[in-house]
Design goal:
This is Staygreen family protein. InterPro entries: Staygreen (IPR024438). Pfam families: Staygreen. Keywords: Transit peptide. This protein is of the alpha/beta class. The protein is about 20% helix and about 30% strand. It is built from two helices and seven strands; from the N terminus they run βββββααββ. A hairpin with a 6-residue loop joins strand 2 and strand 3. The C terminus is likely disordered.
């Protein structure tokens, strides 16, 4: 069952981006409130740097890239954060634990876009864990957006 509560997700489309176009450039900035557990998804031609807390650096950034005939979704996570590698192990653990929720929020928040461009549901998601520590500095395949589509949940599923 999904952890995403759609009632806790706010979505903002920036200038020159609609809920269906463009594919490229289309950049996602996902932030959250530790107090309310509210998620904030901003979709624009550029990342929403104005929404990023430079003290925490716990945002999820993503963008579509076309390689040959295929689209790939790139995710960027700053594992070191403001404190550098001192907290990398803890932040790496938290990012890994929360990334499925973040991908569900992106997929759900931009669901009309995915409905308009269904081929993107099958696009590979590559996650860049960015760290100065080689132990945490990795690129991983996290499946496709089909794996994070909460709109296909059984009717009995509830959001709490």
């Amino acid at each position: 069952m999904s952890k995403l509560n759609p009632k806790k997700l706010s979505v903002e489309f920036r200038k020159d981006v609609t809920d269906t176009d463009p594919i490229i450039p289309r950049r996602y900035t996902l932030t959250h409130s530790d107090v309310t557990a509210q998620l904030f998804l901003t979709i624009g031609l550029t990342y929403a740097y104005d929404k990023i807390d430079n003290n925490k650096r716990d945002e999820v950034l993503g963008q579509w890239i076309k390689e040959g005939q295929n689209y790939i979704y790139y995710v960027y996570l700053h594992v070191d954060g403001k404190l550098g590698s001192k907290t990398a192990a803890i932040r790496n653990y938290i990012f890994r634990r929360e990334l499925p929720l973040a991908l569900e929020a992106i997929r759900y928040g931009d669901r009309k876009f995915f409905s308009t461009h269904p081929e993107l549901n099958k696009a590979t998601i590559l996650v860049y864990f960015i760290s100065k520590n080689p132990r945490f500095n990795k690129v991983e395949n996290w499946g496709t957006f089909l794996d994070y589509d909460i709109t296909n949940l059984p009717k009995s599923a509830s959001f709490t």
